[in-house]
């Protein structure tokens, strides 16, 4: 399972990149707004900076709601960086735009996916990745990871090439579960990425090793 960071924060992306375990980045309008980005030109500049740091796919979301607008934004985004994935919503307009963009070989990440049927239609539309939102389903009392499991199973059964990108992950257990159910990619906030590495016994063990060494070397 590849690891993507779900953030538009450049410092977090730099820190993640230093660990060498980040394969891509996903952004969305909310994450951009959180960083004070409020214009297409600023979003473009941030995405270009991210692409200079991470040698992998960078997902950039359209903000248009009509098909023509999504197509035009998608074509524009596709020129920004070497490895763009245009994020399109799981709506009628999103899928219609997806059909056109994928025909032009532009890679698409189908976002806001909350059902197997949405994922299946996106795969047939040529999505490079589909993003089931685990945490947001959990939030309303559904089993978000079951959706990832079902999509993985069905895509494998029919040999569909669309990658399953587990998104809206909120805690390190989500990462383990996503890996167990066979997600191709997990995208997560930087805080969750940090939690994947953290273990109190590692910290205590390291402190003990150094304490013992310092005592012996006196
Ligand atoms: O990748 C999707 C993600 O940004 C949504 O996460 O926590 O806002 O549901 P969240």
Number of helices: 11
Distance between the ends: 46 Å
C-alpha Rg (nearest Å)? 19 Å
H/E element sequence: EHEHHEHEHEHEHHEHEHH
Shape: globular
Strand order of the largest sheet: 1-2-3-4-5-6-7-8
Strand content: 15-25%
Helical content band? 40-55%
Bound molecules: SN-glycerol-3-phosphate
Q: What value does the average pLDDT take?
A: 97
Main β-sheet, in a few words? 8 strands, parallel, barrel
Class inferred from helices and paired strands: alpha/beta
Give a written overview of the molecule.
The structure is a single chain. This protein has 218 residues and is an alpha/beta fold. The protein contains eleven helices and eight strands. It has an eight-stranded parallel beta barrel with strand order 1-2-3-4-5-6-7-8, surrounded by seven helices. Helix 6 links the parallel strand 5 (108-113) and strand 6 (129-132). It is globular and about 75 Å long. Residues 6, 26, 28, 133, 135-136, 167-168, 170, 187 line the site of SN-glycerol-3-phosphate.
Provide a quick synopsis of the model:
The chain is 53% helix and 17% strand.
Task: Present the secondary structure layout.
Layout lengths: L1 E5 L3 H10 L4 E3 L2 H6 L5 H14 L4 E4 L5 H11 L6 E6 L2 H12 L4 E6 L2 H9 L4 E4 L1 H6 L4 H14 L5 E4 L5 H9 L4 E4 L1 H8 L2 H17 L2
Helix pairs in contact: 1-3, 4-5, 6-8
Bound molecules: SN-glycerol-3-phosphate.
SN-glycerol-3-phosphate binds next to helix 7.
Record keyword descriptors for this entry.
globular; alpha/beta; 218 residues; binds SN-glycerol-3-phosphate
């Amino acid at each position: 399972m590849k690891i993507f960071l779900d953030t538009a924060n450049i410092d977090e992306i730099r820190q993640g990149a230093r660990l060498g375990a980040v394969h891509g980045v996903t952004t969305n309008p909310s994450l951009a707004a959180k960083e004070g980005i409020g214009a297409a030109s600023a979003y473009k500049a941030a995405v270009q900076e991210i692409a200079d740091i991470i040698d992998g796919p960078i997902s950039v979301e359209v903000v248009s709601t009509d098909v023509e607008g999504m197509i035009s934004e998608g074509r524009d985004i596709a020129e920004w960086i070497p490895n763009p994935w245009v994020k399109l919503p799981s709506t009628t307009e999103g899928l219609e735009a997806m059909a056109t963009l994928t025909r032009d070989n532009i890679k698409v990440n189908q976002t806001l996916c909350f059902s197997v049927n949405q994922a299946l239609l996106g795969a047939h539309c040529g999505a490079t990745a589909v993003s089931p939102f685990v945490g947001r389903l959990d939030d309303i009392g559904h089993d978000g990871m079951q959706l990832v499991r079902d999509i993985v199973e069905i895509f494998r059964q029919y040999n569909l090439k669309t990658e399953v990108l587990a998104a809206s992950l909120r805690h390190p257990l989500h990462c383990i579960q996503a890996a167990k159910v066979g997600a191709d990619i997990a995208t997560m906030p930087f805080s969750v990425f940090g939690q994947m590495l953290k273990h109190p016994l590692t910290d205590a063990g390291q402190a003990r090793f150094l304490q013992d060494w310092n005592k012996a070397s006196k």
